Here is the input.
Amino acid sequence: MAVARKKDKETNNTHTYTIEVLRAKELDSGDIALDLIVNGVLIYGAFYVTREVDGKETSFLSFPSRKGSDGKYYKYVYFPMNGAQLAQLEKDIEAAI
Here is the structure.
């Protein structure tokens, strides 16, 4: 379980987030489907994705989204993470697979 802290730039307050990987399943594409619990809230259907961008391998967390009536996709869940938080989450994902 990862415990992440995010400092609010405007108020200088530090927020603590508890992140638990509930389920992690590696897909044929190499992506990893995740269910996370963040501060007691279930986030179902997130993906941990690794892609090559401009010749450099990049990993990121993709949150669930829905297609709007205008044809665009909108995320309905978002959790801001910094590099250290993502690194801890990567360790938790590896342990869950």
Summary: The CA atoms of residues 67 and 73 lie 4 Å apart. The first helix runs from residue 83 to 96. The mean pLDDT is 81.
